[in-house]
Amino acid sequence: MEIPDRSFGQKRSASSEITSWMHGYTRRHPVAALETVGGQCVLGLRAIQYLVIDIATFRFPVAEFVRQTAFMASASAVPTLFVAIPIGVTLSIQFGLLAGQVGATSLAGAASGLAVIRQGAPMVAALLMASAAGSAICADLGSRKIRDEIDALEVMGISVIRRLVVPRFVAAITVGVALTGLVCFVGFFSGYLFNTFVQNGTPGSFVSTFASFATVGDFFLTMIKAVLYGAIVAIVACHKGLTTRGGPAGVANSVNATVVASILLLMVVNVVLTQLYVLMFPRTGF
Fold it and tell me: What span, in angstroms and rounded, lies between the C-alpha atoms of 132 and 72?
């Protein structure tokens, strides 16, 4: 009789511990979420402020900007290229089949082009930026944080935001815009080749419908998305890196949180921007 009682007591204590942990998490999580969002907003505003001031006073760290841009481009360009090719081919397959079912095979280029330019290019570039460049930024700053290099800079009176955050912020925006342009070109070219040589489409109709349906406004929206996505990835990564705690395990947790938070924010911002563009500039005809 003692063994069942003891096991029942253990089960009861374990359930009570889980319940208390859930109650504590429910109380702590909203506060931590608000602190994180507030810290990221403040960091973003201060980065923009220092960027304007440094450019106006010719104190912008050009060497660090070039170094970070080269690093992010080298870490993200090749994966983005190899992701853009299957994205373009997949869109060409899906829209080619759909156009064939409704008897509008000549419009495959238009549908594929709109999908690549409006949604595919900025999202692919942003996701690769978040997973490759964002994680690297967070790991770098997090490692500096646990080695007390960040505190040493502050003790010496050196602004961490000006020295470390601002060049990474501008570099992420630059690389995000460049990768978006790369995805636009590769997605269109791969879709064109697949539609022409595999689906036996007409090259002229693919190009003409693409140019007719995809407008300059769509390209401007894509570039605006690229700028915002690059800024979001940089701010989230820098904030998570600068607030790292707990040694090497804390760096790993910060990197994981950076990728997850960046992707969630990018998805939300993409929906908001797309809906705003549709409401402000509705299509009345083609």
Answer: 8
Q: Are 250 and 142 in contact (CB under 8 A)?
A: yes
In this structure, what DSSP letter does residue 211 have?
Answer: H
pLDDT tens for each residue of 218-269: 788 888 889 999 999 999 999 999 999 888 888 988 999 899 889 889 888 8
45 is written with which tokens? 């505003």
The SS3 assignment for 103 reads coil
Q: Which backbone phi and psi does 110 adopt, to 5 degrees?
A: -65, -50
- CA dist 68 and 137 (Å) reads 9
Q: Which helix (H) or strand (E) holds 61?
A: none
With residue 208 as reference, give the H or E element that holds it: helix 203-213
Can you tell me the distance from the alpha carbon of 252 to that of 268, in angstroms, rounded to the nearest whole number? 25
- Stated pTM of the model: 0.83
Q: Where are the alpha helices (DSSP H) in 57-158?
A: 62-101, 108-114, 121-128, 135-146, 149-155
The tokens describing 112, both together, are 């594929």
Q: What is the dihedral of CA 183, 189, 194, 196, to 10 degrees?
A: 160
Give 44-57 pLDDT, tens digit per residue.
999 999 999 999 99
Name which of 239, 234, 228, 241 is nearest 272 in CA terms: 228
The DSSP letter of residue 57 is T
H or E element at residue 273 = helix 247-280
Q: What is the CA radius of gyration of the chain?
A: 24
- The token pair at 5 is 């009682």
Amino acid (one-letter) located at 233: V
Nearest Cα neighbor of 179 from 255, 104, 123 is 123
As a whole number of Å, the end-to-end CA separation of the chain is: 81
